[in-house]
Amino acid sequence: MLWLTERIKLNYRKANLDKIKNTLSSTDWDRLLEDKIETAWNNFKNLTLSLVDANVPKMKVSVLKSLNQFG
Q1: Does residue 9 have a pLDDT over 70?
Q2: Which residues contact 6 (CB under 8 A, 6 or more apart)?
Q3: Helix residue ranges, H only, the chain
Q4: SS3 for 2?
């Protein structure tokens, strides 16, 4: 049995790379990464995820799924 489902995918080809690059180049990395390693990692991860969320458009993709595990 087959069915069609949708999911959200990031469209990196249409990303605003100039804005991402400008934000990364103007970031105070010493301040962002000055804390303990776990805090520094979370700061870096949050910055990266927020840049992707704000500058990479999302698109719906249709996927054909099979109920049969072999098909």
Answers
A1: yes
A2: 60, 61, 62, 63
A3: 17-26, 29-32, 37-55
A4: strand
Q: Give the type of residue at 30.
A: D
Quote the CA–CA distance of 42 and 10 in Å, as a whole number: 22
Q: What is the pLDDT of residues 14-71, one digit of tens each?
A: 999 999 999 999 999 999 999 899 999 999 999 999 999 999 999 999 888 777 666 5
Phi, psi of 5 (to 5 degrees): -130, 160
Half-sphere exposure for 62 (CA within 13 Å, toward CB): 4
Question: Are the CB atoms for 8 and 63 separated by under 8 Å?
Answer: no
pLDDT the model gives residue 70: 63
Q: What's the CA gap between 8 and 31, in Å, rounded? A: 34
